[in-house]
Specification:
The structure holds three protein chains of three kinds. By secondary structure, chain A is mostly helical. Among the domains of chain A are: 127 residues; 480 residues, no CATH class. Chain A is built from 42 helices and six strands. Chain B is 66% helix and 0% strand. The chains are: A mainly alpha, B mainly alpha, C mainly alpha. The interface between A and C is large, with 82 and 84 residues. Strand 6 of chain A pairs parallel with strand 1 of chain C.
Chain lengths: 1046, 126, 304
């Protein structure tokens, strides 16, 4: 093992060598420096490996043969080895990234850089307070020097503020050190821990001074204006290091000093962390410039780390795991991000659309954003999970709320930015960015590390180790081969889904509940993917994200643990986000989808955390026996799932997201994806049935939510002019039925719910696929711009006809199965009013369904549509497959309802259907699907034959052969009744159609933005004001911590 | 003059300088004056450091013949605490480095905007 | 319950209902004419029309859906007859038609089968008035559904069944056993909704005599019109029969059937003769007022 002192020796030695040798070549100097840093990395990594293998014990290194404080005393333990490895490795990557930037500034820049890293190493390893101060100052000076590798007024200003602030902080630190020495006579950390001489008022002040300095180094809110400026102002290659390497060192310094200060400081630290985390992320929401936004984000992450530190006593064995994952994610993703910014010379968020020119970099950006927010499979996902689970077990619900709210703010701005990058207008022709290899390599390495460490983070936890990563790896493969033609990728994707289904089928064979959803997800996935064959070319980026969604969906089904479930849930969210944002005008809708999804995911996370109280493992069965706060746990879970099913109030994202999505994406996200939310609701409700607590109020509220959702969705659909939005609103309504039905919590209610779930999957897929295919032909979503297409697309017409008959619940198709069950379930339960609202909504469905089919297929054909052809065969195949399924379900409902009844009997043994052959009986009513189908078909065919006999050969009329007020119309537009079709009805029900919820969310958004806009003005830009913040921070903290006890 | 022994005077003046330094940093608008205030703050801290290590009637911890005689070859009892003195030396050196860097920045700032008013340098804000 | 062996009775019933419907519509036209001071048509006019329409030589078509529209319509009408009992009570098991295949929910939703198909057929005709009329019809139908559903729910709770046969049977044994008297509020809601369902004035903007008739009836001619008239006749009777079964104790023999359906039908006709026509928003709002309140009260009674 190389003695860690050689880290310092090598750094200083090479530094002096470069100085002494003078005119060495720049490149040589640079390579020598990199070699030095590589050596430093090698030393610390060697120690880390030794510790990891368990063979090593911590070693104290004293210099010059004296103990501290007379000489430098260093400790190389597991922590130190880990942290110095991070610092040195990031330093190495940063050195590669900045190689030519340093070169331009001259040889000395390399020296300063090495000294900077050395300073951080010693800050981490030092066991002596004064030594800590010295190297803190060395680091500060080096930092102030390195800030100047970028030119410009802003940079100089930022550097000056930084210098001033750190000097003042160090002065306070120094003052504290003196007093500590005065009281204890030692500066060695080992002697200071639990030192009795500090247990007095003077000692408290001494501790306060060193603590406050250490806290200020972590850039706490609001005394962190200087930190923001330096992140923003310095060269981004270097900002990456300040926000990672420096932050790591500061974090550890705070930890070391906190051990002196004792447990009394835990709470203040956690509180400061919480304020910083929320404050920084909130203010970031208002930013227009990428650099500054990311600076806020960095400071937010520091706040999170402080929180973890303050709360560490509650985290038990998981502490190290949480710190490591959160820290590593921040280090890797944040540095990658700053480096990315350095390559893309776009300042404003809006200008980031240019990153699309290099898809690989867009991919990198996505990786960093998802890693920062804490999506799987990145380390912070697992870290935050353990953090929140541990907090819940000790009742730290307000801390959980802080973490989730802060993370939510973070998601707001990061995803808004990403949306602009993915879908914003790329109009900045003058901006050009080159990707140099030496800059791309470090970014690539941190990205790869994020995935690798994420994988190993999962293996750390028992629940995480159960996760099947193979689907995700397939997604990565698809990313890698994204340049291949569509045909290849599509066949591979379909084969993958089929294979996966085949492989996991044995696992699900005994579990019909999961099997139903798995069939919807996988078979539905295959069918909708078939439609993709109609696209031409490569279709970049589509397949990885589509399969990402399906990987998430199947992971939800296969999950045995809450962690596994949440993993799948987040993958699915990420995949569907990318699918949705592919639509032409989808930027705002994808954002609102993502924000609702994330908020919902956090509610689920919180629900899981409460559910986990009292359990040591994360088995999904804990939902069946939640022991503490069951109403909160189930309530939060339901709220979370309801965001995905777009229930009332949480539905405003859906119309845009589904309406603007691509033609084959709409059915994926509507017919298939929404069922994930339903599955979640079902799981929660199963838990509620098994619970010993009385949860009927919750179910009652859920029932009303479902009923009102049905009303809101359907009435919204009636007044749409856009065909896809109409279907989207219809989905809201249909999901409202489903939620309502499940909330009834009886055998019949659940049978209704499952029937609707299956039905909605089939007919909504049929409708969305057909309308999507029609839209591909006509080039417009607006129904009033279509008309008369029955002549051009008879197969599409028949598909829509069957779809709307099924959806509206008209016998003999399967929609009626649902309606009939509904009536019985509602009366049996006694939920008459809610039920009536649902039935009324069903009546409204006729309005929009007729509008859909009439204005598109009937009426007058438009002149510009005279050359249109039937919709693509690749759409017709899945459509008619689904119709076949729909027909089977309609003719033989017992084939599906009887097995369903058996599943439901596990939860509600009584009150099911009584079957007598094809006849179904409830206590109230009776019905036979098969019989009705035969009767109606017989009558229909008989009448058709009669008419055929009566009419002889019918003469075909031309389009305008109608009598229209004595005129023969020449223009289709004037005779096609489509626009504002239900004007009269609107006059009657307009109060129901006002955008109450849209207004509410707008209002909420404005509050966040205004608060952020107002709050961030505290950072006036004036360095002196920042000094004042620091002083005020110290004073306030003084009164909070020890002011009262003096 | 029991109350005004050297150590306490040093401590008092030291804190006074610290306060003056802080006041100057928060009050002065001119960057040079702010830097000067910072050095005053630094000096105050150094003074405090030395004063805390002071023990009445003893001499500097520089061990030469006179000291050895004074203490009757028991050096430890003859000198003040050497550690603060060593610390102050280091702190002065660091303070020097920091001050010079601050001044260098001040120069660059002046070149950029031809002014030394600190409230002129708020390009980065909010 | 029952099986298909009574199909002969069912067909006979259908024939009776068809003719009774034609007679009833002729009577209706006659009454309206007399109120307006005209002489009116001869009472046998519908039969003449039917034969004439069936015999027309030329047939024009706008397309397949146009062609199928009347088929849907008549299927809907016949289906409504089939899924409802013609006669109920002791000894009338052979007149129960196909009501064993489904309960009142089936009847309520099957009504829409014919409406929907007809609407689509008319839609393909490209005649703008068709679309206007259908749009209004659907809007009004949605509004009617609210009090109607509440009323029917109330009856279903009262009789603890959804079977129309059972509901009608439960009302046997004297007119005081009718829902009209045992559950007057629900009956009121249903009967007010019935006004809308029957589609006479003031709720006849759907087929507003001045504009809409030149829509479907002009495009649908000859044998199409014949089928439409037949289905119209059946539907009129069966709608009346629906309310008869729900509220007025059903019918135990054909005389009772004829009298009751006649009275229910003419209840809406007379209301129509007296009241002027509503605009669509007025009629929708009207259903949201008194009928809805009555429906809610009818439910509230059974909620506590």
């Amino acid at each position: 093992m190389v003695d860690p002192i050689f880290i310092v020796v090598a750094a200083l030695g090479v530094g002096f060598l470069i100085g002494i040798l003078g005119k060495l070549g720049k490149t040589f100097t640079g390579l020598l420096s990199l070699l030095t840093i590589a050596f430093m990395t090698y030393v610390s990594a060697g120690w880390l490996l030794a510790f990891y293998s368990g063979s090593q014990v911590a070693e104290v290194i004293t210099t010059a043969g004296f103990q501290a404080p007379f000489s430098i005393s260093l400790l190389m333990g597991y922590n130190e080895a880990f942290l110095t490895t991070i610092v040195n490795f990031m330093g190495l990557l940063g050195g590669i990234y900045l190689f030519f930037n340093f070169g331009r500034k001259g040889r000395n820049a390399y020296v300063v850089y090495i000294v900077f890293l050395m300073g951080l190493n010693v800050v981490i390893m030092s066991r002596d307070l004064f030594n800590l101060f010295v190297f803190l100052e060395i680091t500060s000076i080096a930092t102030a020097g390195l800030i100047l590798i970028e030119d410009g007024n802003r940079t100089v200003g930022a550097g000056f503020k930084y210098m001033l602030a750190t000097s003042v902080i160090s002065s306070i630190f120094l003052l504290g050190i003196i007093f500590i020495y005065f009281f204890t006579g030692t500066l060695s950390l080992e002697d200071l821990y639990n030192n009795a001489n500090l247990q007095n008022a003077g000692g408290a002040i001494a501790i306060f001074l060193v603590m406050v300095a250490a806290i200020l180094e972590m850039k706490p809110f609001p005394a962190n204006g200087w930190g923001l400026d330096v992140y923003e102002g310095s060269h981004q290659g270097f900002s990456a290091l300040i926000s990672t390497a420096t932050a790591t060192a500061s974090f550890y310094m705070l930890y070391k000093i906190l051990l002196i200060a004792g447990a009394a400081w835990n709470y203040p630290i956690a509180l400061i962390g919480a304020f910083t985390f929320i404050g920084a992320n909130l203010f970031a929401v208002k930013q227009k410039y990428a650099r500054r936004m990311l600076s806020y984000s960095s400071i937010g992450q520091l706040g999170l780390l402080m929180m973890i530190m303050g709360l560490r006593e509650y985290l038990g064995d998981n502490l190290n795991f949480i710190v490591v994952t959160v820290l590593l994610t921040n280090v890797l993703a944040k540095s990658g991000f700053f480096w990315l910014i350095g390559m893309v010379k776009a300042l404003k968020l809006k200008e980031w659309a240019i990153i699309r020119r290099k898809p690989f970099m867009l991919f990198l950006m996505g990786v960093f954003i998802f890693a920062l927010i804490g999506f799987p499979p990145f380390p912070s996902f697992f870290g935050k999970w353990e953090f929140i689970m541990s907090l819940a077990k000790v009742g730290g619900f307000s801390w959980i709320a802080v973490i989730l709210i802060g993370s939510f703010f973070e998601a707001i701005y990061l995803f808004r930015w990403y949306g602009m990058a993915v879908k914003g207008e790329d109009i900045y022709d003058n901006l050009e960015f080159k990707t140099k290899l030496n800059k791309l390599i470090p970014v690539g390495i941190v990205t790869a590390l994020l995935f690798i460490i994420g994988y190993f983070s999962a293996q750390y936890t028992e629940a995480g180790a159960m996760i099947n990563f193979i689907p995700f790896i397939f997604v990565l493969v698809l990313f890698a081969v994204d340049k291949l033609p569509l045909m290849v990728k599509n066949i591979a994707s379909i084969a993958a889904l089929a294979l996966h289904f085949y492989m996991i089928y044995p696992n699900l064979a005994g579990d019909n509940l999961r099997l139903i959803f798995e069939v919807i997800f996988m078979v539905g996935g295959i069918l909708t993917l078939i439609a993709g064959f109609s696209y031409k070319g490569v279709r970049r980026g589509f397949y990885p994200v589509a399969i990402l969604m399906y990987a998430g969906l199947t992971a939800i089904i296969e999950a045995h643990t809450t962690l596994g479930f949440f993993y799948g849930w987040e993958l699915m969210t990420a995949g569907s986000y990318f699918l949705i944002i592919r639509g032409k005008k989808s930027m705002p809708h994808a954002l609102s989808y993502m924000l609702f999804s994330i908020a919902g995911a956090y509610a689920i996370l919180a629900g899981f955390s409460i559910a986990g109280i009292g359990y040591t493992d994360f088995n999904l069965d804990i939902l069946n026996n939640i022991q503490y706060f069951p109403n909160w746990a189930y309530g939060l879970l339901l709220v979370g799932f309801l965001t995905k099913t777009a229930s009332i109030g949480l539905h405003i994202w859906l119309p845009g997201a589904h309406g603007e999505a691509e033609s084959d994406v709409s059915p994926m996200v509507s017919a298939i994806l929404l069922k994930a939310g339903v599955f979640g609701v079902v799981l929660t409700l199963i838990g509620m049935t098994k619970s010993d607590f009385d949860l009927s109020t919750l179910a009652y509220i859920l029932g009303w939510i479902g009923a009102l959702t049905a009303l809101v969705g359907n009435i919204g659909a009636v007044f749409q002019e856009d065909a896809k939005r109409l279907l989207a609103y219809s989905s809201i309504g249909q999901l409202g039925y489903i939620i309502f039905a499940f909330a009834i919590m009886t055998h019949l209610g659940w049978l209704t719910g499952f029937t609707y779930t299956i039905n909605h999957f089939m007919y909504k897929a049929v409708l969305f696929l057909t309308i999507g295919a029609v839209v591909l032909r006509t080039g417009t979503h607006n129904m009033y711009e279509m008309g008369g297409l029955i002549k051009k697309m008879p197969f599409a017409f028949v598909a829509v006809l069957i779809g709307i008959i099924a959806l509206s619940g008209v016998p003999p198709l399967s929609g009626f199965t649902g309606k009939w069950l509904f009536y019985n379930a509602v009366i049996e339960k006694g939920w008459y009013f809610q039920g009536t609202i649902v039935f009324f909504s069903g009546g409204l469905a006729f309005l929009y369904l007729f509008r859909l089919i009439h204005t598109i297929f009937l009426g007058q054909l438009k002149d510009n549509h005279r050359e249109l052809k039937e919709i693509s065969i690749w759409f017709l195949i899945p459509i008619y497959t689904l119709i076949a399924g729909l027909m089977v379900f309609s003719a033989k409902p017992q084939w599906v309802l009887q097995p369903l009844g058996e599943i439901i009997a596990n939860y509600f043994p009584n009150g099911g259907l009584r079957w007598d052959g094809a006849f179904a009986y409830t206590q109230l009513g009776h019905w036979t699907g098969t019989g009705v189908m035969i009767t109606i078909a017989t009558v229909f065919v008989s009448i058709l034959i009669i008419l055929k006999m009566l009419t002889r050969k019918a003469h075909k009329l031309e389009q305008f052969d109608v009598v229209f007020s004595g005129e023969r119309p020449e223009r289709p537009e004037t005779t096609h009744i489509a626009y504002n079709m239900y004007a009269g009805f609107y006059k009657a029900v307009w109060p129901l159609t006002l955008p109450y919820f849209e207004k509410f969310w707008e209002w909420a958004t404005n509050i966040v933005h205004e608060t952020a806009g107002f709050g961030r003005r505290v950072y006036s830009g004036n360095g002196q004001a920042y000094m004042l913040h620091i002083v005020l921070f110290i004073i306030v903290l003084f009164f909070i911590t020890i002011g009262g006890s003096l | 003059m029991e109350t005004l022994e050297l150590g306490k005077i040093g401590l008092l003046i030291g804190f006074l300088l610290v306060i003056v330094g802080f006041w100057g940093i928060l009050q002065q608008k001119n960057i040079i004056k702010i830097i000067v205030s910072f050095t005053i703050l630094n000096t105050g801290i150094n003074l405090v450091m030395v004063a805390l290590g002071y023990i009445k009637g003893r001499t500097a911890p520089i061990i030469d013949d006179s000291v050895e005689q004074l203490a009757n070859h028991n050096v430890i009892n003859a000198i003040v605490d050497p550690v603060p003195q060593a610390l102050v030396l280091t702190a002065i050196v660091i303070g020097f480095g920091v001050t010079s860097l601050l001044l260098a920045y001040a120069m660059k700032l002046f070149r950029a905007k031809k002014t030394l008013e600190i409230n002129q340098f708020n390009d980065l804000k909010w | 319950m029952t099986n298909f062996s009574n199909i002969g009775y069912t067909l006979l019933g259908l024939f009776l209902v068809l003719n009774w419907g034609m007679l009833m519509s002729a009577t209706f036209r006659k009454i309206v004419a007399r109120v307006a001071g005209r002489h009116g048509i001869p009472i046998y006019q519908p039969w003449i029309d039917l034969v004439k329409n069936a015999g027309t030589r030329t047939t024009l078509s706008h397309g397949v859906m146009f062609y199928l529209g009347p088929v849907f319509r008549l299927t809907g009408a016949v289906g409504m007859f089939l899924f409802m009992p013609a006669l109920v009570g002791v000894g009338n098991d052979h007149w129960l038609n196909f009501s064993f295949q489904g309960d009142i929910v089936l009847v309520l939703y099957f009504q829409l089968f014919g409406m929907l198909g007809m609407a689509l057929g008319a839609g393909e005709g490209g005649q703008p008035h068709s679309a206007i009329g259908i749009g209004r019809g659907l809007a009004q139908h949605a509004a009617i559904e609210l009090p109607l559903t509440l009323g029917i729910l109330s009856l279903a709770i009262q009789y603890q069944t959804l079977s129309l046969v059972d509901i009608a049977n439960a009302q046997q044994g004297g007119f005081l056993n009718w829902s009209l008297f045992t559950n007057p509020i629900a009956s009121a809601a249903i009967l007010l909704a019935a006004l809308g369902a029957m589609g006479h004035s003031p709720f006849n903007l759907v087929k507003a005599p001045n504009e809409i008739p030149i829509g479907p009836p002009t495009e649908y001619h000859g044998s199409y019109l014949g089928i439409l008239m037949s289905s119209g006749a059946i539907i009129h009777v069966m709608e009346a029969a629906l309310f008869m079964n729900l509220v007025f104790g059903g019918a135990t023999n054909w005389i009772e059937f004829i009298i009751k359906t006649f009275l229910i039908y003419f209840y809406s006709v007379f209301v129509g003769v007296v009241f002027p026509r509503f605009r669509i928003e007025q009629s929708v709002v009207w259903f949201f007022k008194l009928p809805l309140v009555l429906g809610i009260i009818a439910i509230l009674i059974y909620s506590f």
